[in-house]
Amino acid sequence: MKLYMHPASTTSRPVVQFITDNNIACEMQVVDLFTGEHLREPFTKINPNKMIPVLEDGDFRLTESSAILKYLADKINSPAYPKDLKQRAHVNEVMDWLNSNFYRDYGYGLIYPQAFPAHKRRSDEAHAATIEWAKDKTRGWLQLLNDHIIAGNKYICGNELTVADYFGFGIVQVGELIRCDFKPYPNVARWLDTMHSRPSTAKVYEVIKGFAEHMKSQQFVAI
Q1: For the chain, how big is the Rg over CA atoms in Å?
Q2: Distance (Å, rounded) from C-alpha 198 to C-alpha 43?
Q3: Spatial contact of 185 and 142, defined as CB atoms under 8 Å apart
Q4: Nearest to 47 by CA among 26, 73, 72, 29
Q5: How much of the chain is in helix, strand and coil states, percent to nearest 5?
Q6: pLDDT band for position 31 (50/70/90)?
Q7: Distance from chain centroid for Cα 199
Q8: 194, 153 in Cβ contact below 8 A?
Q9: CA–CA separation, 98 and 115 (whole Å)
Q10: Is 174 helix (H, G, I), strand (E, B) or coil?
Q11: What DSSP state is assigned to residue 10?
Q12: Helical residues (DSSP H) of 3-123, grouped into ranges
């Protein structure tokens, strides 16, 4: 198998960590986001969406981080993607919620416009309004994550590690770029600490933590 990825990619890291934790034989093919390699051939023929990660398993090609995690978990018969219908449906529900609701405002509204020049809005007024809106929405999503999704559980879907934890950790952790404070959300903070303590996290998240360190002198609007 081959995974097209980049260590600075929010959606690549969950897949890389799952592969690492489960000792899955997989070649890592770095696609350089910072030089725009994902925007031109030959990569655009591999994924016309011009996004990573992409998994190749023989003649089968799969895009989307969430789908790749589920496929890999099924392929190796991992308990991280439960076979029980209702448990699996809950994992799917939480991953969809993270991707469709939380990440839209948190990542693309609050964090990326501040951290990456390509995401900056065309005017200062539009930029500030985007961030203000996203900050308010993010607080609501984090409260929901804290009070209703994680609640008293060790992990995001209960007391057992699932692919939703890999996926969710990749997304929530990126808030460290703008120095988000999760202490007002104690269940979220505790869950993040649990995921940070995994043996694979330091290496898989090394590049993004270095990027955060590089930006430590910048001022950000954060929760």
Answers
A1: 17
A2: 32
A3: yes
A4: 29
A5: 60, 10, 35
A6: very high
A7: 18
A8: no
A9: 20
A10: helix
A11: T
A12: 12-21, 43-46, 65-75, 85-97, 103-105, 112-115
CA-wise closest residue to 208 among 20, 5, 3, 71: 5
Return the number of other C-beta atoms located less than 10 Å from residue 110's C-beta: 27
Greatest Cα pair distance, the chain, in angstroms, is: 50
Separation of alpha carbons 193 and 172, rounded Å: 12
How far is it, in rounded angstroms, from Cα 121 to Cα 202? 33
Amino acid (one-letter) located at 90: H
Angle at CA of residue 171, ends 166 and 174, nearest 5°: 120
The pair of structure tokens assigned to 28 is 């890592």
Both structure tokens of 82? 């439960």
Reported confidence tier of residue 220, pLDDT bands at 50, 70, 90: very high
User: What angle do helix axes 163-173 and 12-21 make, rounded to 10 degrees?
Assistant: 140
Q: pTM of the full predicted structure?
A: 0.97
Q: Which residues pair with 28 in a beta bridge?
A: 3
The residues facing 36 across adjacent strands are none
What share of the chain in percent tops pLDDT 70?
A: 100
Domains in the chain, ordered, with CATH?
Answer: 2-75 (3.40.30.10), 85-214 (1.20.1050.10)
Residue 27: both structure tokens together: 């070649």
DSSP string, 137-160: HHHHHHHHIIIIIITT-SBTTBSS
Place of tokens 């209702």: 86
The tokens describing 201, both together, are: 């996290």
Mean pLDDT on 214-218: 93
